[in-house]
Amino acid sequence: MIELRGVEKIYRRGAEELHALRGIDLDIAKGEFLSIVGPSGSGKSSLLHILGCLDRPTKGTMKFDDLNVEHMSETELDGIRSRKIGFVFQQFYLMPGLSVFDNVTLPKVFSRQKIDVDKIASLIATVGLHNRMKHFPNQLSGGEMQRVAIARALANDPEIVLADEPTGNLDTLNSEKIFDLLRSLHRKGYTIVMVTHNNDLASRADRTVLLKDGLQTAA
Amino acid sequence: MVFLRLAFQNLNRHRTRSLLALFGIATSVAVLFSILSFNKGFEKGLAKELERTGIHFMVVPSGCPHEVASLVLHGSIIPKYLDLAVMDKITILEGIEFASPILVAQLPNPAQKRVDLVYGIEMAKLLQLKPHWKIQGAVPKDDTEIILGAEMAGHQGLKVGDTVAYPNVNASFRVSGILEKTGSQDDAFIYMPVKAAQAIFKRPSGATAVGVKVKDPALLTTITDGLAEQVPGIQIVTMNQVMSSISTLAASAKVLGLSVAIIAILVSAVGVMNAMLMSVFERTQEIGMMRAIGAPRSDIFRIILVEGMLLTMAGGLAGILVSVAGNDLIGLFVRRIMPYAPAGSMARFDAGIAGASLLFAVLVGVCSGVYPAWKASRIQPIEAIKG
Ligand SMILES: Nc1ncnc2c1ncn2[C@@H]1O[C@H](COP(=O)(O)OP(=O)(O)OP(=O)(O)O)[C@@H](O)[C@H]1O
Ligand SMILES: [Mg+2]
Known about the structure:
- The structure holds 2 protein chains of 2 kinds.
- By secondary structure, chain A is of the alpha/beta class.
- Chain A has a single domain (31-59, 69-217), classed as Rossmann fold (3-Layer(aba) Sandwich), CATH 3.40.50.
- Chain A has helices at residues 44-51, 74-84, 100-110, 117-126, 142-154, 172-187, 199-203, and strands at residues 2-13, 16-28, 33-37, 59-64, 67-68, 85-88, 160-164, 191-195, 207-212, 215-217.
- In chain A, the strands form 2 sheets. In chain A, strands 6-7-8-3-9-10 form a 6-stranded mixed sheet, with helices on both faces. A 4-stranded antiparallel sheet of chain A has the order 2-1-4-5, covered by helices on one side.
- In chain A, a hairpin with a 2-residue loop joins strand 9 and strand 10 (215-217).
- Chain B is of the alpha+beta class.
- In chain B, strands 1, 3, 4, 5, 6, 7, 8, 9, 11 and 12 form a 10-stranded mixed sheet that branches. Chain B has a two-stranded antiparallel sheet with strand order 2-10.
- In chain B, a hairpin with a 4-residue loop joins strand 3 (96-109) and strand 4 (114-121).
- The longest helix of chain B is centred in the C-terminal third of the chain and has 44 residues, at 239-282.
- Chain B starts with a helix and ends in a 10-residue tail after the last helix.
- Classes of the chains: A alpha/beta, B alpha+beta.
- The A-B interface holds A 45, 48-49, 52, 54-55, 74-75, 78, 81-83, 86-87, 89, 91, 93, 95-98, 102, 105-107, 109-111, 152-153, 156, 164 and B 2, 5-6, 8-10, 12-13, 285-286, 289-297, 299, 380-382, 384-387.
């Protein structure tokens, strides 16, 4: 589904060049549950930007569903993101002024799709919050907020869910629960990629990619 | 709808900051709205009052035209007197329907510890001069009777048939009639036969002015020109002159006020822009997230723009409400700075002006929101995943 070949990411700060990724080859198959780990500054976030079509590689190619992404326009990338990718962030990023239900519908609003109330409700039930639909984010616990964010990531029926340290702001118990939720989504057929600092959780994924200095090393 | 709530949510998140920006807009819109409303009410009131006086021009001693204007409409005191010998010269002119002397003066009333305002007039011509008056009781038959303005009568609890005495000038009068409330300053006067007033003020042939009505208003200029030629030392003020001299003054006051309003609006627009830039900057990650989950740039632009419009619209509404609530206060202020102000409430609520002010506020919102909205739309989706 995703195919990276020789992907490099170079950040330029004035005259200084910073190689965040130095040639990554990576294939992600449909239905995989992949974790990405590595020390701080090893390039995890940079890789996730490229996998999520948030950014283009400086060098190398990336194919998403056999489409070459590296030369796509911003609008085309917007389209791919909203149709094919669901994002889960470390800081949840729920909109405080919107109810749980409306937060989950947000991707549909942005992609101008009709809102199927029953479908959204069943998504919210999937993450175990069917009795919190009318609540607002400030009435939820951290774990519950991340569940809402996961439901939101699923709103547009994505092919892949990219999670950036989804448990980074949660305690152990809630981290377990979120991980279990991701795993259950995986069982339902979703492709899941998770960046994490938690080696224990990472090792329980199907496959682990270990980054070091912008290069993939054997796990 | 969701965009509106998102915009509202963002304003609500920094309530103090939003309120400060809103306050600025409210103040400047209040100024704008007040000026526009008062200007309209002022001109309307002026035209209406001039239409109500039954005279075409006034003959007065040479002097300040503003004083004359006030005299014509409210009977303010002019220290100069006219010799009534001019009356004869006026009445013999061709085309005069009537001419009536008017003597306005202050009369101390020791019993009430106040100074009464006396308006001496020829009672036979009273209803011609003041065609819109409604009087309870009767017009004075002789020089011992007077009519009281409603306020005057109410203030001293006087009724038709009562006696008002001025021992200081050896005079006393029977109230023959009371003028029904007019809502103008006519309510504050004592109307007495001009002969009686002349006796009290020891000006046997003096008057403050002579009010003249002509038979054919088309011949007005011919008549006034002729009169000015024949009688030296007088000034002739036509109602049109009064009207335009006051209007000119009102117009320059309006220009001044509008410039103040425009400056206030500019300052508050900068305030709105600043508040919005700050909030866009603080929300960089959140906006990045919206972009990441599929929001096109145009949507981000729209949300921020709506935010600015919401803010200024709320400010505009608040400003209009404040202005309407403070209507009477502003009226007092206008009365103090203008030599003449029409009676009654000047600023009648005008939906058109309110709509225009609100529209203007929203326009300010759009203008000051464009830059922050553009800034926000440039935020990259990778901002959602940093670090
Ligand atoms: N926008 C940027 N401009 C310049 N350098 C950057 C930028 N983003 C990342 N880098 C650098 O690229 C390298 C890789 O960063 P990246 O964020 O991908 O690491 P990471 O593995 O996610 O680290 P962490 O575990 O701390 O989140 C780092 O040295 C970082 O300083
Ligand atoms: Mg990172």
